[in-house]
């Protein structure tokens, strides 16, 4: 972390909860490449590191380029799964749905992009749009 993000390490009290190496899923007998899983107690830290890594376009570990990717907690995965049926219906109707991080549904309607954090807010919104209400009444 200090090699790639020295200013972030100084700014925030960066604490790694757990770090471990995992074998390559395709061939566990191969020694490289391996994944390093790092768990952090605060999601804000992870978000800031990933954002900085995207801006830099290259992150290294001991001088070797590596790739960072976000991993979701079980709570986040469950919240994203709850949107799946609605997502599928909207996708068939060409509303261009997207699941944003962490579990926010976004879609295009009438030339505007609408985003909803939970199903209750979506229910309130669709009552004002009869076509959308008919489309989603069986799913919500």
UniProtKB/TrEMBL annotation:
InterPro entries: L1_C, L1_dsRBD, L1_RRM_dom, Transposase_22. Pfam families: Tnp_22_dsRBD (PF17490), Transposase_22 (PF02994). This is LINE1 type transposase domain containing 1. Belongs to the transposase 22 family. Residues 2-71 form the L1 transposable element RRM domain. Signal peptide: none annotated. The lineage of its organism: Eukaryota, Metazoa, Chordata, Craniata, Vertebrata. Gene3D superfamilies: L1 transposable element, C-terminal domain, L1 transposable element, RRM domain. It comes from the Eukaryota. Residues 75-137 form the L1 transposable element dsRBD-like domain.
